Amino acid sequence: MKLAIDCQGLVKRFGTYTAVQGVTFQIPPGTIMGFVGPNGAGKTTIIRMLCGVLVPTEGQATVLGFDVRTQPEEIKQRIGYMSQKFSLYEDLTVGENLDFYAGVYSLRGEIARAEKTRVIELIGLGDRTSQLVASLSGGWKQRVALGCALLHNPQLLILDEPTAGVDPVTRRIFWDLIHQLAKGGMTVLVSTHYMDEADTCDYLGFVFYGRLIAFGSPDDMKKQETKANLDDLFIYYVKHEASDDPRNLVKRKGGLS
Amino acid sequence: MQRFAWVRFIAVLKKEFIHIRRDRPSLIMAIAMPIAMLLIFGYAINTNVEHLPTVVWDQAQTVDSRELVTSIRNTQYMDPDNFVQGYQEIEGYMDSGKARAAVIIPPDFGKKIQGMESASVQVLVDGSDPTVARAVMSAVQMLGLNKSLQLQSERIVAMGTAPGLEMPLNFETRVWYNPDMKSMVFNIPALIGLILQNVIAMLTSFSIVREKERGTMEQLVVTPIRPLELMLGKLIPFVFIGFVSLCLILATGIFWFGVVPIGSIPLLFVLSTLFLITILAIGLLISSIAKTQLQAMQMTFILLLPSILLSGFIFPRETMPTLLQLLGGLFPLTYFLRIVRGIFLKGVGMEYLWQDTLILCAFAVLLLAIAAKKFKKTLD
Predict the structure, then answer these.
(1) Do A106 and B219 touch (CB under 8 A)?
(2) Is the Cβ pair A76, B222 closer than 8 Å?
């Protein structure tokens, strides 16, 4: 079976700072993969390498069968991307934003119109198309941003903390949509801080200090470390990994703890 | 009433200084700008017009005429370095701006001076810059008066009596290009360049920096859009806006101020387009360095102020120290001002403007290449 994402020992260094270190994982198409980990762990850097925006320092990765080093343009045309910033043009209406992104993904005339209608229906934007984005609430901005990322029927949807700062109801609606899209065959890669969201993913990757320290299905992971829920697992990992941090060893030797 | 707490005050003070220290562009503005302004103003605002390039047509070729040229040089106002034969050559020098004044000495000059008659010398002045023209005219009048007095006294000594009340030496001054010496005629064409530069550079850089500020650039990076597509898509609207403002300024200049271009308007448009391209490149360059709109605005101003002072917009470049003249040569506006003023006031065509046009072309190509390269980097 062809893999949606195949990462082999990805490394990214910025000067002397290593942001990502030896990340290896594989996910099949039509599944949802969640990235969890503290802020600054390197989730966004991994995501940007998979989008073909950042070139990995070492390692190999193919996304939808295309090499991230040599075929970034093929990847960009086939993925949908949305970040927590909901990068929309505030001074444009919802419809104008959709039109712009349709153009960016080379959708023309009849097809562009059809895709726009499909997305508006899918997201439930309805009569808001003529509203300025600036006047929308956070939840609606999030939906419009998702709509823009879905116009070109991407095979892979990459979401970088899409639900940060969004109310629980909107989060629920959003995730229902994500599951619906995955059922339709779309692969989804999503980073999040919410464990309830992470629990519903097919695969979970735990990123810490630039390394992928655990990878598997949520149930397997919980079983492996005998934890009842993901919150406990998360805290266990952080403590476990942090104890390996050389700084903590020094502390202990000094008898501070 | 609450007491003023020094602790809180000092805390704020400290914090603000940290802000300022971290904010490089503002720091540069605060330190470098005053010094740069002072130097530029100090040197460039030199209303003393000196060493203007002058062309001489000496038809007499006598000791007296050569002496006259020497005394013209001694005024320090004019440098009569070029000698020609005929009006046509004079026109060529004046049209191209190689000479700002011309001295024409009649064939019978020596005879008249020696023969106790009154001789007149014609002086043509380029009036496109009224300040320069006025300075030259008064210098020439002073010289005429001095020379006349000197000749008068020599003649009195020679003859014993006064030879008459007529001045032995007359300077007839004639102003070319802007005979009424209206500064408006000088300033309005130049404003075309200045306004285009300000407005377009700022708007262009704003439109790109805005994408960075709002995070939409980050989104565009992950889409298949190519740097060239984005760049052209962003620049073309400003070419259009540039044309609209150009038309507006031209119309206002012609219909409101009554400053009508003597030369070809199509040529003006073609060369303005060239200038517009260099300005767009500057805007693009600013946007690739600036991270916020505020920074972009600061950079535009840093670029703008010296160009007003050094491009010849207000002060004649000829009278500036060499270093400032060289600095002024780094601004595309300098060359464009020569072009617009040439077309507006002198009605000259490409035969005299090709040099400035070539330099402007070089600017456009160079700046666009650098800007495009930098822009591509921001997107990759």
Answers:
(1) no
(2) yes
Q: Looking at residues A35-62, what average pLDDT do you find?
A: 90
Q: What is the 3-state secondary structure (H, E, C) of A192-250?
A: CCCHHHHHCCCEEEEEECCEEEEEECHHHHHHHCCCCCHHHHHHHHHHHHHHCCHHHHH
Interface of B with A in 185-244 (CB under 8 A): 214-216, 218-225
Name chain B contacts of A79, Cβ cutoff 8 Å: 222
- Please, which residues bridge with residue A60 across strands? A8
If you compute the radius of gyration of chain B from its CA atoms, what whole number of angstroms results?
27
Residue-wise pLDDT tens digits, A162-219: 888 888 888 898 999 999 999 999 999 999 988 888 889 999 999 988 888 889 888 8
Among B215, B222, B225, select the one facing A53 at the smallest CB separation.
Answer: B222
Q: Tally the C-alpha atoms within 13 A of residue A190's C-alpha that lie toward its C-beta.
A: 29
Instruction: Indicate the domain borders of chain A.
Output: 5-253
> How near does any CA of chain A get to the CA of B200, in Å?
21
pLDDT of res. B204: 85
Cβ distance of B224 and A90 shorter than 8 Å? no
Domains of chain B: 6-44 (no CATH), 52-176 (3.40.1710.10), 183-379 (no CATH)
Residue in B210, B219, B230 to test binding to A, most A beta-carbons within 10 Å? B219
pLDDT at A39 over 90: no
Q: What mean pLDDT do residues A220-243 have?
A: 80
CATH number assigned to the domain covering A5-253: 3.40.50.300
- Whole-complex ipTM: 0.82
Count chain A–chain B contacts defined by CB atoms under 8 A: 39
pLDDT value at B229 more than 80: yes
- Taking contacts as CB-CB distances below 8 angstroms, the residues of chain B near A158 are 222
Judged by CB atoms closer than 8 Å, whether chains meet at A105 and B224 is answered as yes
Contact B279, B201 (CB under 8 A): yes
Give the contacts of A253 (CB within 8 A, at least 6 positions apart).
Answer: none
* CA–CA dist B143, B127 (Å, integer): 19
Nearest to A87 among B218, B224, B380 (CB): B218
Structure confidence by residue, pLDDT tens digits, A112-167: 899 999 999 988 888 888 888 889 888 889 889 999 999 999 999 999 998 888 88
pLDDT computed for residue A104 by the predictor: 87
Tell me the torsion sign for CA atoms B335, B340, B342, B348. positive
